[in-house]
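Hey, can you fold this?
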Amino acid sequence: MKNFVKNQIKKSYEVKKNMLDNEKLIDEILEIGNLLIETYKKGNKLLIAGNGGSAADAQHIAGELVSKFYFDRPALPAIALTTDTSIITAIGNDYGYEYLFSRQIEANGVKGDVFLGISTSGNSKNIIEGLKTAKEKGLITIGLTGESGGKMKNLCDYCICVPSRETPRIQEAHILIGHILCSVIEEAIFGKGF
């Protein structure tokens, strides 16, 4: 059992080591960080969505931006589209599960906002519909996916494909990327700069 635990840690480490050694991926994270900094400076907001563990990641990232990450500072507008059970159940019942996020983007997204869709497979139907609606409304689209990128890869303005095919390892990398983005945004807008 001890070796099983060690192997889980080793697998997580290996994915992160591959990310660290991938200059293209590092540049993509920085580019998205700069994009989000400019989005906030213009007075726009971030909408985030995912399913299951990715829904938890959406809420986690939104919480870090609205509350704080490293230090006290003014709140930043970020909305996890995964939290309102009345909206989610109404849309699911009236339109279908695949429209959970697209209807909310239609209602709350404005040109210049950013939609961040999180899907380990890159093929979640409700994220794909959300990306389509976001594009129609003039939102900038970002995807966090696994290695292949799935269908999302071609629908996003920016798509970070974590170099793994294992859902837990991809999710661990997604929250790492989310934390990096939160820290970059917070420091650039409210900190001492880089």
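Oh, and this one too while you're at it.
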Amino acid sequence: MFTIGSNWATAALSPLKSTLKAELKINNAQYGVIASANSLVNTVLPIIGGIAIDWFGPEWGSMLSSVCVFLGTLVSGIGASRSSYRALVAGNVILGLGSNTIESCQSKLYTHWFYGNHLGFVYGVDIAFGRVINSNHLKATSIPIAEGTGWWGWSIWASTISTSIPCIMAAATLAINVAYIFFESRLPKASRLVSGREAAKRKTDANQGATREAWFAAIFAIPAAFWIITISQLLQSGDVSAYSSIQADLITQTRGSSRLVAGYTSSISQIIPIFVTPMVGALFDRYGRRMYYVSATAALWILVYALIGFSDVHPMVPYGILASVALSFNAIPFIAAIPLVAPSQAYLGTAFGVWKAFNSAAAVIMDVSTGAIQDKTPTGTHTYDNVLYFLIALKAVDVIYGMLYHVLDLRYFGSVLRMSEVEKLRDVQRQDAEGDTTRQFPLKRPVKLWTVLGLVVMFSLVITAWVLYLVYARGS
């Protein structure tokens, strides 16, 4: 339940794109600034948050994050009341301070309790729970609320009120965290999630210098296999994020649908994943072969983009059917793969933080870039043509990546991405019996070249995201 507030608040924007442009007198790129505002701070914060989670533990981080989520939705509501573009941007930035850190806390807790025990299914349930909020509560209701009340701002305020009046959801999250901490404290020590700080205390009474070194050591302990996958993905997650932020307006422009119909149609793609994504996670647990689905999913996204932008087929086909299947398989192969290529709890929170930092930077870059591309494209039915060409080109590269990951896994990762849970547990037992296997598969351990390259690419993405964001935000 930790991500209810952030999921609810961010889901409201997409159906309101055309309304926000008209009411706030902004262009497509500036709408991209609003849509990506909560991702902006998450180009840096997840890394710091991930390191802190590994060092202090995830329980306290989730409590602090819930406060940021509430404050962000409150500021956004005030911005809607005053028709203030800058306040809406500020609200989404504050919201971003908590949204991704909460997800990293969840992921680390899930891995502690469910590693080797239906972990893929648990990740699927978590993603599906977010889809429930995304589709049923807001994307299908933002336009009805706006049209029924005569003011678009009620859609933003509904997000704020429904998630946190007054701070109800933040208080509920706090209560859940307190209950969890109490529960964990009652468990045998061997069952508890040990933070990096506790582990360091148990090992030695080190001086302050050694403690600082341990604090930052996590990021340099991440295996090369993780960096290879993360670097190669670059803008791929931002591809789908950008598409999601424009899909309602895309239906309106290409099919001439009303905003109400477009809002409902765009929400349909979120419904099927509610039921399918947990099944996909269970499929990975039972049969493995996670990277097989990366190429197939990328090819499916290409078909979705082509049908919605360059054909007259009813939007229910690409949105209601094909996009639903693509969303079901989109994120979970990578989320389920991170604990396999970065398996130690000593740095798992940092690994999730790095992954989210890459994704957030990509979301900012893609949201603003696609808006800028659209602004330079003739208006009318074909206003999204160049945007869709761009999205298709990126997914075409991802088709190749999926096949490449499979080869790398077989030769250099120890086939961990192909294994089912049963095979994975057997492999762990074999490693315990035979000793270290990283000499046979060197990319399963840290490699300085890949760590440095990963950090350089990550900070380059972050700088690019901030420059793009500030340029177009200042343009308002």
